[in-house]
Amino acid sequence: MKGTSMIQMLRKSPTAVAGCIIVALVLLSAAFAPWLSPYSPVDMDLYSRLKPPSLKHPLGTDELGRDLLSRIIWGARVSLKVGVISVGIGLIFGVVLGLVGAYFGGVTEKTIFGVVDLLLSIPSLLLALAIVATLGPGITQVMVAVGISLVPAFARVTRGSVLTVKEQNYVLGAKALGASHFDIMTRYILPNVITPVIVLATLNLAFALIMEAALSFLGIGVQPPDPTWGSILSEGRMTIRTASWVSTFSGLAITLTVMGFNLLGDGLRDLLDPRMRRILQAK
Amino acid sequence: MNTPSPLLHLNHLKTHFFTVEGTAKAVDDVSFSLNKGETIGLVGESGCGKSVTALSIMRLVKDPPGKIVSGEILFDGTDLLQIPASRMKSIRGKRIAMIFQEPMTSLNPVYTIGDQIAEMLLVHENLSKKESWERAVDMIAKVQIPVPERRAHEYPHQLSGGMRQRAMIAMALACKPEILIADEPTTALDVTVQAQILDLMQQLKEEFGTAIILISHDLGIIAETVERIVVMYAGKVVEEGPSLSVFDAPKHPYTKGLFKSRPKIGERSQFGRRRLLEIQGAVPNLFQLPGGCSFHTRCVEAVETCRRISPELISTSDNRKVRCHLANP
Amino acid sequence: MFIPTLIGVVSLVFLILHATPGSPATRVLGEHATAESIADFERRWGLHRPLIEQYVDFVISYGRGDFGKSYRTGEPVLEQILRELPYTFHLAVAGMLIAVVLGVTAGILSAVKPNSLFDNIGRIFALLGVSMPVFWSGMILIIIFSLNLRWFPIIGAGDMKAPMEILRHLVLPATTIGLFSTGVIMRMTRSSMLEVLDQDYIRTAFSKGISDSRVYIKHALRNASIPILTIIGLSFGGLLGGAVLTETVFARHGIGSFLIDAITWKDYPAAQGCIFTISLMFLVINLITDLLYGLLDPRIRHE
Question: What is the ipTM of this complex?
Answer without folding.
Answer: 0.86
